[in-house]
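Reviewer 2 asked us to include a model.

Predict the structure of this chain.
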Amino acid sequence: MNVNDLKDFDILSPQDKAEALALLHKYDQLGKQESCQKDFMSFVKHMWGDTFIEGRHHKIIADKFNRIAQGKLKRLIVCLPPRHSKSEFASTFFPAWMMGLNGALKIIQCTHTSELAVRFGRKVRNLIDSEDFKTIFPNVSLQADNKSAGRWTSNMEGEFFAAGVGGAITGRGADLLIIDDPHSEQDALSPKSMDSAYEWYTSGPRQRLQPGGTIVIVMTRWSTKDLVGKVLKKQKDKNSDQWEVVEFPAIMPKTGKPLWGEFWKKEELLGVKASLPIAKWNAQWMQNPTAEEGSIVKRDWWQRWKKEKVPEYNYVIQSYDTAFSKKETADYSAITTWAVFENEENDTPCIILLDAKRMRVDFPELKRLAWDEYKYWEPDCVLIEAKASGTPLAQELRRMGIPVTSYSPSRGQDKVARMNSVAPIFESSMVWAPDETFADEVIEEMASFPYGDHDDYCDSATMALMRFRQGGFLSLHEDYQDEVKLLRKDRTVYY
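Predicted model (structure tokens):
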């Protein structure tokens, strides 16, 4: 309510005005108090102030926290990229808000080091001790004798205990367990450290949870073997904890727009991507760690060409996986270019990835791009799958003088079957890639197949490699027994 909304306010005596203003102020405070108590986002805005930059992910997380406060959600996983207010929300404002709602609450908060955990504890303690907090939760305060930032109690016998991963939590119980980034950069490089974090979780914090208690894990993904990966794998057992999972990639896959466009510009995120190994970008920033253990083609099967110039090659195949649309929700078109060369170390034929491009384009743009790629690389063969979008492109390129070969998968040759058919070529160390970003992207997508978000490069690559093998440009041990005659026949396609 506003003073200006009151008619005849000016005719009041000074004393009546003062009393009216006091009542209005009290009414406003009660409204704000009620709003902040019922809604986590309102609480954050009130406590954070004008510097808070709200994003869509904040609203979603706030809704989940509201459901926790209402007792409707007991197991929550939130995966966020770095620098997206993860810890401010989950490790500062959320425990303070929950303690305000229930001053007797027992909270255990953990992160990868005890020092960082204590720092979070100090922030929560200082927040509860602030005047702004007292206006929202006037009945909750700190015990007068609280000295430790990592261990303190409320006036209602509520407890807050901060611990690092691996630290002892024996003898303490928790109504709310918050785990924020249990892995450090060093942990990510050590499978043993990943295992240790999970062992600590199951033997320590998980067993300290009170009946009916709540667990929140908020973190940036590192690997399929990190804490989130392990607890989600465990939930296949219906008797195990069943988690609600919210994952936020830095750049939304369908729209190509930043998750937090109010704070992060897309150009800045692309700069981060360019400066990181693609595996780290996919895991930490896109929340999509590669499931190496379930992949058909492993990363380390690729051979890396470290020299500045590619080797001399004698046959080039250009392969297309097509989609005709510029809409941000459309599939990508992918073009990969490959060549055969002789490995001087063992005089065996090998394949090297020369180039890879992926983009959303309309049909005229794809035609122009195809012509440019053909003129630059001068491939001996251009492969396009004979599907709905590929057929008109093949027809148009033939009219332009480009030697297109239509690829039609035989019965039973689905995407997985095709990848399995070329996997032995990789395993035999016959496929090379330059030390370039485009090659990293192809390697990562193939390493994540069939569980990754995209398979455009996979489709393009498998077509090319199957054609190389069928054409007799390279051979494996099993080929000699069953396919010699067929290979010789197929080679005539290329000469």
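Confidence is low (pLDDT under 50) at residues 480-495. The first helix runs from residue 14 to 38. We have added this to the supplementary material.
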